[in-house]
Write a structure and sequence with these properties.
Layout (H helix, E strand, L loop, with lengths): L4 H12 L17 H16 L3 E4 L5 E4 L4 E7 L12 H17 L4 E6 L10 H6 L5 H6 L8 H4 L14 E9 L4 H5 L3 E7 L1 E10 L3 E2 L11 H16 L8 E3 L3 E4 L5 E2 L2 E10 L2 H22 L2 E4 L3 E3 L2 E2 L2 H14 L4 E6 L4 H5 L5 E6 L15 H22 L1
Parallel strand pairs: 3-4, 3-5, 5-17, 6-16
Antiparallel strand pairs: 1-2, 2-4, 6-15, 6-17, 7-12, 7-13, 7-14, 8-11, 9-12, 10-12
Helix pairs in contact: 1-3, 3-12, 8-9, 10-12
This protein binds (2S)-amino(hydroxy)ethanoic acid and manganese (II) ion (2 copies).
Length: 400
């Protein structure tokens, strides 16, 4: 099975046209946006051209199905509010290219998927979370994005055909860019993923008193932004004995009300997200977050509320699928690949509830992702897809 590098790169560039923005190869293609839905219609056509049957479920997860039992290869094609051209898109186009290479080269049956809302406009990897049964459709529909739109309303644009039975798939392989600095720094070409970290994510609201920024003495203020600032500072200190160098936490979204220069902000709503490979540590961090928020609220006269807690547990990759990727990496780039954990979340976490899963990474230039500057050398993209194709061929030969 030989992948066609020129065809792969042409498709990646064609997909980038949907929502192309910003510097370099940036993309703005959030879940269910016009650009996202147009991109999905284009991907569906590429699936049909590859001889696959297109099905779309109620969430908008897009499948290109091969006949009979098949291995599922893919990722997602929605983007962050400011994203790059490869995050998710690479895994989907890689799946298409491997399906075509398998068809042309007498390989095994390969189906392709682009999951919806992996980037969490509404939650955490929402499309695959619902498909896998981790999250009910009813609960998902109530999730709201930062501007207040409910997922149940946003998904009305989906051209639903029906539900897709996971039992038809023999396993799931997701190719992705690393999105971090490890491979770029070491000069290695491929990462085979050992496991994916866990995540917790919730909204926190401090409510104080909106007031005049010129007349309200500092000692009398109940300033919601000052509460967030104090909370963030205290959190760092309280985490010190619990976290490891690979633990991460982020306040990535903050909304101040009414967000004006001359008004002491009365309300602050912000996202609190934390990730680690150990579920116990994630739980201990949650307790710290809740008590620091409570202490801050009490000290500053704030009303405090916590939003719904979303999360995924850490998962290990399947040894059999992983072994096929390792063998293929060793054949193509001997000594220039490594086994490594994923610090980013992926649909593979949810899919692991349904079937065996594995992942492979290619380097991210300067380790940058979730930014317009995200990129990977074209030779690395082509090599990665060839490594994937050979692993799929090996697995097909094993099961026949
Ligand atoms: O945020 C993540 O880890 C992923 O890119 N959704
Ligand atoms: Mn991704
Ligand atoms: Mn991402």
């Amino acid at each position: 099975m030989r992948v066609n590098g020129a065809r792969l790169l042409a498709d990646l560039h064609a997909l980038r046209e949907f929502g192309a923005a910003g510097v370099g190869k940036g993309v703005v293609r959030p879940a269910y946006s016009e650009a996202d839905m147009a991109a999905r219609a284009w991907i569906a056509q590429q699936m049909r051209d590859a001889g696959l049957r297109v099905e779309v479920d109620a969430m908008g997860n897009l499948f290109g199905l091969a006949e009979g039992p098949s291995v599922l290869v893919g990722s997602h094609s929605d983007s962050q509010p400011e994203g790059g051209w490869l995050d998710g898109a690479l895994g989907v186009i890689a799946g298409l290219e491997v399906a075509r290479a398998a068809r042309d080269g007498g390989g095994p049956a390969v189906s392709v998927v682009s999951f919806q809302d992996e980037e969490g406009r509404f939650g955490v990897t929402t499309g695959s979370a619902v498909w896998s049964g981790h999250l009910s459709q009813e609960a998902a529909d109530k999730l709201r994005d930062h501007s207040g739109v409910a997922l149940g309303d946003a998904r009305k644009v989906v051209p639903v055909t029906g539900q897709i039975d996971p039992a038809r798939f023999t396993g799931f392989i997701e190719m992705h860019i690393e999105q971090g600095p490890v491979l770029d720094t070491s000069g290695e070409r491929i990462g085979v993923v050992s496991d994916i970290v866990g995540i917790r994510d919730m909204k926190i609201t401090f409510e104080g008193q909106q007031n005049h920024a010129g007349t309200t003495p500092m000692s009398l203020r109940r300033d919601a932004f000052q509460a967030v600032s104090a909370f963030n500072h205290a959190l760092e200190e309280r985490f010190a004995n619990v976290v490891t160098p690979s633990t991460v936490w982020t306040i990535g979204h903050l909304s101040l009300h009414p967000n004006a220069s001359s008004i002491v902000p009365g309300r602050a709503v912000f996202s609190m997200q934390w990730r680690d490979g150990d579920s116990d540590r994630l739980n201990r961090m949650e307790q710290i977050i809740r008590s620091v928020a409570q202490e801050t609220a009490q000290a500053r006269g704030m009303a405090l509320s916590f939003g719904e807690m979303l999360g995924l547990e850490p998962v290990a990759m399947d040894a059999g699928l992983r072994g096929a990727l390792e063998q293929s990496a060793q054949k193509h780039v001997p000594g220039a690949w490594r086994l490594m954990p994923s610090g980013a979340l992926h649909d593979a976490t949810n899919v692991s509830r349904l079937m065996s899963v594995a992942m492979l990474f290619v380097p991210s230039i300067d380790g940058i992702s979730h930014a317009f500057e995200e990129d990977t050398a074209e030779a690395d993209l082509v090599m990665g897809v060839q490594v994937l194709a050979d692993a799929v061929a090996t697995l097909g030969a094993r099961s026949s």
